[in-house]
Amino acid sequence: MRARVVVVGVAVDAGVGGSPLQDESAPRLLVWMFLGYWFENIEFVPSAALVALLGSLGVGEAAARAALSRLARRGSLEGTKLGRNTAYRLAAGSAQAARAQGRRVLKFGSGPSPWDRQWTCVVFSIPESDRRRRPALRQRLRELRLGPLFDGFWITPRAPLAAIDRSLTELGVSDAAVFRVCEVPRPAGVDLLSAWDLRSLRADYEDLIESLEPVVRRVRQGTLPDRDALVARSAACARWRYLAAADPGLPDELLPRDWPQRQARELFVEAYDSLGPAAERRVRELVGSVRGVSSPAPHHRRIEDCLGVARSA
Fold first, then answer.
1. DSSP code string of 112-172
2. Exposure pattern of 118-133 as b/e (b: 16+ CB <10 Å)?
3. 3 state DSSP class of 84
4. Residue 309 and residue 95: Cα distance in Å, rounded?
5. Is 291 helix (H, G, I), strand (E, B) or coil?
6. Going by C-beta distance under 8 Å and a sequence separation of 6 or more, which residues neighbour residue 47?
């Protein structure tokens, strides 16, 4: 079983008759709800409305409320009292970062990555007495989309030099070196792309294509109900967010010609944009069904509008 389902918590056909989104996805879904339907809003959204929205995506009430409390404790959400009800909005300290991350996810795959044909290499040695640092450093390097060519030797065609240095410093890893080099190809040499599991990544892209094609077809035909549109759009966002984090961002010239990322992105963009109006209607319906609370009106945004805000910011 690939990590896609575990990390994202979304079944392949979620939103069109498949398994619902899972409770462990609730914190990420909440942030996407704010970014997707209250993008630049500074008003508070009642917790009952957010719980109802997550409930429509298969997240239990207890898990939804726990996610709200957890995000508030972390400082990601800011809470207030509206009469007897609690309401939340993205906290000022995290809103800008959350929006920036959301834009990066939506922009992911939109164009080729320029490459100077150099590789960034990180070589490190951690003594057995400090072995607890190893998993922490490996996790940091994975988050920066480096891959392990050998144990203690990680590579990337990109150059996140400041972030690498910050990770080494914060973790106290002093026996390390970072350098930028060109590969000297050898017929019997190690394939640098073996640092990543591109076979599984390809399968994840192909799975997304397979699941989105019928959704897009039903939207074009006008046969997808609003209820399914909200779930399908949320599922597509969750899976695209996972792919944006899992993909090492290799230059096009290193990838096979039939690499499925471009087709997957085209389908994701069409699904995200075309599902927006129906998903918004469903959000308004759910928010309006909560008695005794008023909530700012949600408004979906097309991807080009979100990226347009980023360009003008």
1. PPP--S-EEEEEE---GGGTTHHHHHHHHHHHTT-EEEETTEEEESS--HHHHHHHHHHTT
2. ebbbbebebeeeeeee
3. coil
4. 14
5. coil
6. 65, 68, 79, 85, 86, 87, 88
Give 297's DSSP letter: P
- Report domain extents, the chain: 1-117+197-313, 121-181
**CA-CA distance, 289 to 90, in Å (whole number)?**
23
Phi, psi of 289 (to 5 degrees): -80, -10
- Residue at token pair 């008695």: 291
For residues 57 and 238, give the distance between their C-alpha atoms in angstroms, rounded to a whole number. 12
Residue type (1 letter), 149: L
pTM (predicted TM-score): 0.85
CA distance 48 to 92: 22
Instruction: Please check the confidence at residue 258 and state whether its pLDDT lies above 90.
Output: yes
Classify strands 119-124 and 153-156 as parallel, antiparallel or unpaired: antiparallel
pLDDT digits (tens, 9 = 90+) for 30-46: 777 777 788 766 788 88
In tens, the pLDDT along 127-138 reads: 988 889 999 999
What is the C-alpha separation between 114 and 120, in angstroms, rounded? 14
State how far the Cα of 159 lies from the Cα of 146, in Å rounded to an integer: 10
